[in-house]
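User: Design a sequence. Structure:
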């Protein structure tokens, strides 16, 4: 069996196991196997659950075998590879984007959303170890079907079209970022064990855009922490010059320069394989972060979907493209910027409105929440309830009644609007 067939078989088995987990073992036996459990349950509260055990297993096996988990077991990675294969079948061959953000951005997302907030919480609250394998239930941290499907479409398909193979794994995945450290220490690595003719086939075959031929000829091994041990490079080498080999970590030759790698992607042949945006890395980073924060959490969007949209849109803005109509690109860019500014204003208004409400500063809170409900296309009953309560506290019964009616229309069966009507002294 070829290596590719073996990997596809393993990925199919993993997906069958995921399905069995959902259908048979469910929450009664094994709870959510989401990576974020490690941060939300273990780091935050000291709870060891199924997701936390999976992460610890991935971390320690990565110390030995590298990030094989990403290459051989991740459903998101498999989805992107399927998309890549489908696009190729359709004759579409997106170039993989070469950027330093593949190192920086996933680490920023990991620290900002998962490590720092949960660590800060743990420092301020009592923390004790406990075991809870069957909780939370599978869907606890997953979005609903609509947002879930859109997330798969954006991070599995669109991102591959715009940023190339494994665009999500390279530019956004915080779990990949978490495994970078153990991966840099991994004992098994792809190593140069034969004569290399510098044909660059290994670089062409690498799904995560590593300049393999540069790395193995400079450091005698693949040093990139993005390597997923998929072994496509070893299988693709016509000279059999590469092997996946063990090395005693105490004898491993580690050079500082392997973490900087200024000269990679510089060979003419390699340059043609990639679209380099290194000169625009800082601009892309700033735009992606601003856009991501602007929409994160709105419409029920999770971080993955929000930052997927953010990086695709930001890349579209900075990418040079010629259209038949010269006005089209600036118009599209302006529309994208306007859309993010709009949603940024909504996010700011909601955040300020809720903060001021908690501080009993109702006049300021009303101004912010009125702006939020005016700008936000999605009606949110809770904001209208808060506005109704605050207007009532200010003695403005008419405005309070108006928001009570809107809240009731949004959630006809919810207790909140009924209670508000009672406080106002009016019938629903
Ligand atoms: S360097 Fe080789 S093993 Fe690592 S991700 Fe690329 S193709 Fe796979
Ligand atoms: S595919 Fe093999 S021979 Fe070609 S550059 Fe890579 S290691 Fe060298």
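Assistant: Done.
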């Amino acid at each position: 069996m070829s290596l590719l067939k073996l990997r596809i078989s393993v990925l199919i088995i993993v997906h069958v196991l995921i399905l069995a987990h959902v259908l048979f073992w469910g929450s009664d036996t094994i709870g959510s196997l989401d990576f974020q459990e490690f941060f939300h349950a273990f780091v935050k509260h000291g709870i060891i659950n199924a997701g936390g055990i999976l992460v610890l297993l991935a971390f320690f096996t990565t110390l030995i075998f590298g990030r094989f988990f990403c290459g051989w077991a991740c459903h998101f990675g498999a989805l992107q590879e399927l998309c890549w294969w489908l696009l190729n079948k359709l004759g579409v061959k997106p170039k993989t984007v070469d950027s330093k953000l593949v190192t920086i951005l996933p680490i920023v997302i990991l620290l900002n959303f998962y490590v720092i907030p949960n660590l800060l919480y743990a420092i301020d609250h009592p923390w004790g170890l406990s075991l809870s394998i069957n909780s939370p239930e599978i869907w606890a941290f997953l979005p609903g079907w609509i947002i879930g499907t859109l997330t798969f479409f954006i991070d599995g398909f669109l991102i591959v079209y715009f940023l190339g193979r494994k665009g999500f794994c390279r530019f956004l995945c915080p779990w990949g970022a978490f495994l970078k450290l153990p991966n840099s220490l991994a004992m098994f690595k792809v190593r140069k064990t034969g004569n290399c003719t510098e044909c660059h086939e290994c670089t062409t075959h690498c799904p995560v855009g590593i300049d393999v031929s540069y790395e193995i000829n400079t450091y005698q091994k693949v040093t990139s922490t993005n390597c997923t041990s998929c072994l496509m490079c070893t299988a693709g080498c016509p000279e059999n010059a590469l092997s996946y080999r063990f090395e005693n970590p105490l004898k491993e030759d580690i050079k500082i320069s392997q973490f900087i790698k200024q000269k990679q992607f510089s060979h003419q042949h390699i340059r043609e394989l990639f679209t380099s945006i290194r000169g625009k890395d800082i601009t892309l980073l700033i735009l992606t972060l601003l856009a991501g924060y602007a929409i994160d959490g709105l419409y029920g969007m999770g971080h993955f979907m929000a930052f997927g949209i953010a990086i695709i849109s930001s890349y579209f803005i900075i990418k040079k493209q010629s259209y038949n109509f010269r006005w089209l690109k600036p118009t599209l860019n302006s529309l994208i910027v306007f859309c993010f500014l709009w949603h940024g204003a909504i996010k700011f208004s909601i955040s300020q409105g809720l903060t001021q409400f908690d501080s009993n500063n109702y006049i300021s809170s009303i101004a912010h929440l009125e702006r939020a409900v005016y700008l936000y296309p999605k009606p949110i009953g809770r904001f209208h309830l808060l506005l109704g309560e605050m207007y009532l506290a200010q003695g403005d019964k008419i405005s309070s009644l108006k928001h009570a009616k809107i809240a009731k229309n949004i959630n006809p069966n919810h207790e909140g609007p009924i209670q508000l009507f009672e406080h106002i002294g009016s019938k629903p």
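Residues 190, 205-206, 208, 210, 212, 222, 227-233 surround iron/sulfur cluster (ligand 1) (CB under 6 Å). The chain is about 60% helix and 5% strand.
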